[in-house]
TrEMBL record, chains A, B:
Residues 77-162 form the Acyl-CoA dehydrogenase/oxidase N-terminal domain. The lineage of its organism: Bacteria, Bacillati, Actinomycetota, Actinomycetes, Micrococcales. One of its GO terms (molecular function) is acyl-CoA oxidase activity. Residues 1-35 are annotated as: Disordered. Pfam families: ACOX, ACOX_C_alpha1, Acyl-CoA_dh_M, Acyl-CoA_dh_N. It comes from Serinicoccus chungangensis. This is acyl-CoA oxidase.
């Protein structure tokens, strides 16, 4: 069933540089792995790798699992120390700074920086988050919001880890509502400095990764005040600790202490008491202060500037989506591998006891989950590629950028919801063994949990998606704007739905073909699935627009928005479901290996039917599905689970996490006898 | 809105002894509490207290919160020490041993022992589980499976904590399948001893609470072998540690280490190498060895004896249901109280920022959850009362016992599923603050998690429920028996459904009244809700029976069972949904205060409609609900949330957890300024 380890047969794609920037030795080595994979498992990895597949292969082949997984028994101080050490190792391994400018030692490849982030998530999410804060959020803010001087000054010590950076956005009083942050950056013309200050208890920065112990420098969000006038939120680089770890003058640092997970991340609080930094520390790409002490910006409107600056969060959200998707894949890999060796209850007329995965109920837990995990891989790949494509464009396409921001926000919400549900399901599917930290699931669950609320709370993000849809990506966004949402809807709405899908000729062709058939023929028909998803989205969005439009003249636009909030969230979710399905369908189309494609098609059908079944109430209530068909969908899901069951091992191999990276004691050969009733001592 | 603290106005009900057995001082004090409650909140507590309400009031009034809550920052060794100390304090507080015989210092009140367990869950679940293992499982096994000598010998040192007990049932190789445990209890006639032995690696006991550090003595499940003949699983009391904590000769003890929660519980492994104990250590109420060395039992069949012995697990399952229900109530209390002080985003035309609980989406998360939490309170009360009623009956009613076992198994599965989903939802509803351990939700989540798989894995338990239903409680059960389930279905099935509901005249009357009305009138009609729940259950169960009956002659009864496993689980769930709704309706009926009753009726409607909405796909596919009605249900849920919103504080007060027991830093007054943007320093 398995092939012996061989140098991988697929060569890096020519358009992708898989060399590791900071490690010439690693780059010189072709990807090789000790992992024993089935042919199908390896082919599934290849089919799901996308543009950055070779980067993933290289990491799997060259990074020792031992450097990427953490002993779950470490205390919080030990876990923090391990994580900081591991962060340094990422640099040696070349998994850091890919998104930085070439001049500062990076690759100027923001897509690859997402993949680097994702690969750390194959190992340990504390490391993922810590590197995300340091390289992605702090380094990313300097890169995206700063200018050349900032790059030259602040990025090299980040890439060398001489300095640890943190990202001081959230305050006790405001998290989702970034525009209302209370921290002030007041320009003092007399000394040509910016005074950073926390004016209220609620303006203390909190949950800031690396603030409790490691960080030397912070990208601090606050209201920029120049000559008494506020210009909205801007970012200033502020030293918060000296090299010996002592707080900088005027800076008070606190420790958020134990959390629901991420024991290796030292989240903390930062309070500023009139802390002075030179004017040059203002990241002034979109708005700054000139030598005469006047505020200057190429963007006239404060709102538009704010949304442009927040638009730089897009990478972080794709990263979080990729990290959460990886966490789901890890959990599914652990639970499925366990279900392939764990037996319980004798079956009348069968030899021995029954493997967990041979129970229909167990299949129904794990196999649709695996199908969704595949769907998310293709969706993450699509956004990662798109991010880099737009980055490479010489002129910015604003609508394309908005669309990407919308989908990144939505995919982050969808994958993190799925990961929290799925890791818990996998934990329970492993019984008592799943509850032991040594088996990998509980740490993963605790670590991934916060992904649902950081980098944008999921509920808020889904509202942003709806706002993007209602405005046809023509409006700036990045914040929850209740009045704006109602107003968008009041304008002529329509057109953009078709426009957004027209970009996929394959999807259009399949859907049209299905429309010509009757219901009886089409249960497995991809066109029918695509039509169902698109039709659901269209109907939800159009009725939402109508509903909001009817209330557009209400004096109370909060009430108008709020009364439809469940509808708003449904619109966003159905849009993302369609996006994910179309990404899956497009990804499968690109697969040339017939056997692999057949498996992927089956997974895609299972994903589509599971989603239709989960919304069976909606589809029937809106006359999109008959009672008979609703029952047939469930029967078909059971059939698909049975058909995919024999390939379960290959399917989880295809999810891309090598077994040693799963960090699960119960999957190791030396403990196998425990799970084999009657095996001799 | 709140009344000042006064001695509570409701006196203990005369039929319940609220005195604390081991603390005369506490018993002499009338319940008094420092808690400031609204009138409605207090009245809701009274209405949901049931027979043991006064016991709960006394604990809330007399037990200091500080003795019941644990610092979430404690390391695992510190948490274990805290828990062991707290266990001792339970004895001083009289919250221990209520279920023990009066002669051994107990109250012979098994219902009250469940409530004692539940009250510890108001504070800390490690303490709950540790006390559950020591008093409930170990003490309960000795009480229920032992005879007078065992009670006199083994119970006093448990109640004095001179000995700590543990419950050694689960092995690496077998958890759910208790009948297949591999540990052997072999009678050696030559020395009149029983030899306890672990013959295989998979027979090592694992996940055993208190085994890693504290336990001196274990109730060990194993196959009893007398004169070469096996008589199935029996329990033997085995010393495993001496008073200095050294393992007994032949006993090897291991530590399960860090877990997903319950840091205070020292779960571990036990391996026996030919450990000898006197014959008297066999708990022989249902089967033993006489002085001539012959196996003797009043119960002829090994299977029936096994099921009778496992029937003693019923209390543990009610306890776990109560504990999980309490954990849900804690989480909902924390998240709702936070949502009543946390604001985010300005609303156009409104002063200040919007309270989280004023968002429809937030209401839709929390308020239906609160409604379900109320439903579960009434259901837990009903089973607790029933447990004690049956315990007090001079002759045992076997069918009633089976029914109780069925419902206990089912309610455990339903409440633990709900608690895992709900605690996570509440964590996310509190954003970053919810992720900090100091705010109480993440520890609760990790601790409650395992309730879904211990004391019976939920999937297995739901199958037991289906088995009970198919056999009309006329067959013994306690184990998953696939052949049996198919065979029950093959016999004449019917009758018991009506029989089981006929016991509730109120329910019958309401349902009949609804049947005479049209769909238009009945959206808020309790009779319609009851009819929908009953009809769903009846249809699912009848079609399941038909389906299994059709396969009854299959040679492969595993395949026959397995192909319908999703249907089996649905039958169990729909049965439990009906039971919970009927318990809720019956509980509301008993409430005499009109204002309180109105609130409870609204919660009951919200619970019923939420369940109907969650199954909207099924109801429509089976022609039980029109498309229009499916949409109307959602609109009505939104309306009910809006109607209940102004009473949110009162509703969570009614959930019964005093604020200091929530152990949530963010709810304390001294941190309030953090959550109030713009408040002065």
């Amino acid at each position: 069933m398995t092939t012996s380890a061989q140098p991988q047969t697929h060569t890096p794609q020519p358009d992708t540089d898989v060399s590791m920037p900071a490690s010439a030795d690693a780059a010189a080595t072709r990807p090789q792995s000790d992992e024993e994979l089935t042919d199908l498992g390896e082919a599934l990895r290849r089919a799901t790798g996308g543009r950055y597949g070779p980067v993933r292969d290289l990491a799997r082949a060259t990074v020792p699992a031992s450097t990427m997984v953490r002993d779950p028994e470490l205390t919080m101080p030990e876990a923090r120390e391990w994580t900081t050490d591991a962060l340094r190792r990422l640099i040696e391994l070349g998994m850091a700074g890919s998104g930085f400018p070439v001049a500062q030692g990076g690759l100027d490849d923001v897509g690859r920086s997402c993949v680097d982030f994702e690969m750390t998530a194959h190992g340990d999410l504390s490391l993922t988050v810590k590197s995300g804060v340091h390289f992605g959020l702090y380094g990313g803010a300097v890169t995206a919001l700063g200018t050349q001087w900032h790059h030259e000054t602040f990025l090299p010590p980040i890439l060398s880890m001489e300095q640890v950076g943190c990202y001081a956005m959230t305050e006790f009083g405001h998290g989702s509502d970034v525009a209302s942050l209370e921290t002030t950056h007041t320009y003092d013309a007399a000394t040509d400095e910016i005074v950073v200050h926390s004016p209220t208890p609620s303006s203390t920065k909190t949950y800031i990764g690396a603030a409790a112990h490691d960080a030397h420098v912070a990208a601090v969000y606050g209201q920029l005040v120049v000559d008494g006038e506020s210009h909205g939120v801007h970012v200033v680089v502020v030293p918060i600790r000296d090299e010996d770890g002592r707080p900088a003058p005027g800076v008070t640092l606190g420790d958020n202490g134990a959390k629901g997970g991420l024991a290796g991340v030292d989240n903390g609080t930062i309070t500023f008491d009139q802390v002075r930094v030179p004017r040059s520390h203002l990241l002034n790409r979109y708005g700054g202060i000139d030598d005469e002490g006047r505020y200057v910006s190429d963007i006239d409107s404060d709102g538009k500037r704010f949304f442009t600056m927040l638009g730089t969060l897009v990478r972080g959200r794709i990263c979080v989506a990729a990290g959460a998707a990886t966490a789901s894949r890890k959990a599914l890999s652990i639970a499925t591998r366990y279900a392939l060796r764990r037996r319980q209850f004798s079956a009348p007329g069968h030899d021995g006891e029954v493997l967990l995965l041979d129970y229909l109920a167990h299949q129904r837990k794990l196999i649709p989950g695996i199908a969704t995990a595949y769907a998310h891989m293709f969706a993450v790949n699509e956004l990662t590629d798109r991010l880099q494509e737009l980055h490479e464009m010489p002129t910015k396409d604003q609508e394309a950028q908005r669309e990407l921001e919308t989908r990144a926000a939505g995919l982050k919400a969808v994958t993190t919801r799925f990961s929290n549900d799925t890791i818990q399901m996998c934990r329970e599917a492993c019984g008592g063994a799943g509850y032991l930290a040594e088996n990998g699931l509980t740490t993963l669950r605790g670590d991934a949990d916060v992904f649902a609320t950081f980098e944008g709370d999921n509920t808020v993000l889904l509202q942003l998606v709806a706002k993007g849809l209602l405005s046809g990506y023509k409006e700036m966004w990045g914040d929850l704007d209740m009045r704006g949402m109602v107003q968008f809807a009041a304008r002529a709405f329509g057109g953009q739905f078709v426009e957004a899908t027209a970009a996929r000729p394959l999807v259009e062709r399949l859907r049209s073909a299905a429309a010509r058939k009757g219901e009886d023929d089409t249960l497995l028909d991809r066109g029918w699935h695509l039509a169902m998803f698109a039709d659901r989205e269209r109907h939800v969005l159009e009725t939402l627009a109508t509903r909001l439009r009817r209330r557009a003249d209400d004096r109370d636009s909060f009430e108008a928005f709020n009364s439809a909030q469940d509808h708003v969230l449904l619109a966003a979710r159905t849009h993302m479901d369609r996006f994910v399905l179309e990404a899956f369908v497009t990804g499968v189309e690109a697969c040339e290996d017939e056997q692999v494609r057949e498996v992927l098609e089956r997974l895609c059908t299972l994903y589509a039917l599971s989603s239709i079944d989960a919304d069976a109430g909606w589809f029937q209530a809106h006359n999109r599905m008959s009672a008979g068909r609703a029952k047939a969908v469930i029967a078909q899901i059971n059939t698909l689970c049975a058909e995919l069951r024999p390939q379960a091992l290959e399917l989880v191999e295809g999810l891309g996490i090598p077994e040693p990276w799963l960090n699960s004691q119960m999957l190791r050969d030396e403990t196998a006898a425990r799970w084999t009733p009657g095996a001799p001592v």
